Amino acid sequence: MKRLALLMALLFVASCGSTKLKETNTTNIPPLPPGPEGAKGSVVVSEGPPSEAGSTITTKAEPTVKAPNFSSGGAVGKIIGFLASDELKGRDTGSAGIEKAAQFIEGVLAQNNIPPYFESYRDTISNFDQPAYNIVGLLKGNDPNLKNEFVVIGAHYDHIGIIKAENGDAIANGANDNAAGTTTVLELLRYFGKSKTNKRSLLFTFFTAEEKGLLGSKHLAEKLKKSGLDLYVMLNYEMVGVPLVGKDYVVYASGYEKSNLATVCNRYAGEKLVGFLPKAKEFDLFKRSDNYAFHTVFNVPSQTFSTFDFTNFDHYHKVSDEADIMDFDHMATLVNKFIPVVEGIVNAPSKEIKYN
């Protein structure tokens, strides 16, 4: 998320790197498990207005919603373990480390039969002084009409690289910020690449230069708008590596009060998956991550999901933001809970998510 100079004792927003990238090399990509399998039930709920802990819920006895047992802590750990490894040197702009991250992401897209949206996976941004690239894959919808509408699912894959050393360690690995969000999107694309259950088209987007001022997402949003893309909604994942504490929801949405996104998500999840975090509104986190460019350019619901609540993570932009302090099982559960949500959104007969 975009970096805040005076509020970073509390805030988690950042803006990070870019890189010179080469041709895709998938030889170092950790093997991932195969596609969709299994399911388990949960209950359907509805929620009321925002409160300190989130919104109130009413539990119904039926029907149940099936959430796949698709992702696992082991699969998540392999991905984030690589993206936040010392080998990638913090994935800063112009670095060899973010080149390795880009190749990794391209490899996962290719392995799951998701082709590039542009001529290649790499979208060169025009608003940075070094070669820097978003990574964009397209999974076309399977409905002859709805396939012309698009859902963007995104996360930034850059971080801040080498910083002032602490105890001999100068690598800001950026596990939670934002290898965690990148891992979530990679797991979602792995699911949909195998299942192909999407009626609308899905754009899986990995933004560069977020830590430099949301530059990658600004570039891409403007480029897609000029091309006439019919964007329905943009779903962004930022800092989801550790669970919320003492909340009755799993994630919060930035800009919660701006749309009915949480209501729609919770209906498809069959539980109160998405809640309201007052601090997110207080510090206007809606404007501090890559969703914001899509909001300003397209004026369609564009929001970020996060589990950083200003109390559960003390490692923002520090060398201690390492993969071994992430909760892999929590992350896998989050992916599994969002699968029926994304399926519901991309397969709805009409555009039901709207700004208030």
Task: Summarize the model shown.
With 356 residues, this protein is of the alpha/beta class. Helices cover 29% and strands 18% of the residues. It has eight helices and 14 strands.
Architecture overview:
This protein has 356 residues and is an alpha/beta fold. It has one domain: Zn peptidases (Aminopeptidase, 3-Layer(aba) Sandwich), CATH 3.40.630. The protein contains eight helices and 14 strands. It has helices spanning 73-83, 96-111, 175-195, 215-226, 261-269, 278-282, 291-298, 328-347; strands at 40-42, 45-47, 57-59, 65-67, 122-124, 133-139, 150-156, 161-166, 169-172, 201-207, 231-237, 251-253, 274-275, 302-306. The strands form four sheets. The chain has an eight-stranded mixed sheet, with helices on both faces. A two-stranded antiparallel sheet has the order 1-4. Strands 2-3 form a two-stranded antiparallel ribbon. A hairpin with an 8-residue loop joins strand 5 and strand 6. Helix 3 packs across helix 8. The protein is globular, with a radius of gyration of 18 Å. The model is unreliable at 2-29 and 33-64 (pLDDT under 50).
